[in-house]
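Illustration 12: Calcium channel, voltage-dependent, alpha 2/delta subunit 4b.
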Amino acid sequence: SEQINAIASKYSGAVLLQKKLKDVEPIIRIEDVDGARLVLEFADEIERMLGSKMKSVKRLADTAEDADLYHEYNASLQFDYFNALLVNTMDEEGNFIELGGEFPLEENEHFNKLSVNTLMSDIQVPTNVYNKDPNILNGVYMSEALNDVFISNFQKDPTLTWQYFGSSAGFFRLYPGIKWTPDSNGVVSFDCRNRNWYIQAATSPKDIVILVDVSGSMKGLKMTIAKHTINTILDTLGENDFVNVIAYTDYVRYVEPCFKGTLVQADLDNREHFKLLVEELHMKGEAKVKKAMKESFRILARANGQGSLCNQAIMLITDGAMEDFQSVFEEFNWPDKKVRVFTYLIGRDMTFSENIKWIACNNKGYYTHISTLADVQENVMEYLHVLSRPMVINHDHDIIWTEAYMDSVLFKNKAHSLLLMTSVAMPVFSKKKETLSHGILLGVVGTDVPLLEVMKLAPRYKMLISFSSRTLAPAHSPKTISKWFAEN
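Figure caption equivalent — predicted structure in token form:
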């Protein structure tokens, strides 16, 4: 016991702390506090802070919708914008290259000491998207109106971090503007449409069954494309979604037998688990999709019977389908068509394209043809636009908060650090009368909120003190601090 006491005294610093407290004893006093009231005060402060972020995002959404309302699409539009990858880049003759004009950048303490432009946003475009495509140019031109709102928001709320607009066309407008750095291969793989905040804001929760053809005809490149398609679909799901993956030939096989007959939450662990299992798929036999389709409808019907209010969809990934499916749809999905069926025709062979297209078009889905790995990303994203249509038509402007996630943060010295974040986002819809019934999603606006900023409003030392219901405040004390310290 003496040794334990000696070690505790040596390493806890208790003696030194008591001495320091004695030094300030004349100017402090003990004061009782109401712990419950303190927690309510924390809650009010946090609510005000988060409410301010939501108002900023709402202003961005309103401005983007109004800008689109008065913008007339011009297929031949010529417009130079600041491309985040190309800004401040010169050619051999010392002239700024196209889309890479002079873009002043200054180190900013608030943004991790990165060099940023707080007077302007700039545009990031993934490598697989043509940066002068008419849809990109019109969207960038229209969204220029957001610059003033970005700046105004930041002036009203200096705690704001990154603000952004992710377009359904693929470009990403970011404020403050930065110089974007590609990966080691010179590729910009970041696509805002894959981010959780975009997907959650653009669609409501989803129940998804992925059906993949693993018959002998799917060997080689076809199966590589199919696996990439499955992984890309899984990447579009979040914790509010439920999913299962079924492989089929002439029989039905769940890739994870433990999940047979049910849907599981599409959290990160389950998504990664499915990806590992998909990599192990082997091809053999003849494709008989009718059994797999029936099994998929049964799973979704079971989820619906348990009170699911989610969008429900089947994703069919195959290189062809010869069977007659009408009887399946008549039994399980028609006339209400509560389950959408999206079809992905894999490979260059178009022999069965009409069959595959018929399946999607007669079940409120979407047909797409994927012949190369490069086609996967853009084609998979189309299903999100289809699922977002009811929200757009009804103008359901739901503000969403993502679950907390770890995000990579870049610092001035190019070092990366992981930071716990949440994002607040809101969908942006077209309000044009001529397209209102089509349900066109323009994109998603949002801002990031580091959870550290939330924690600052409820300091740990205050939380601890609120549980003890006591704190220290400046004044003279009738008790000695050392005695109070011992009692508490």
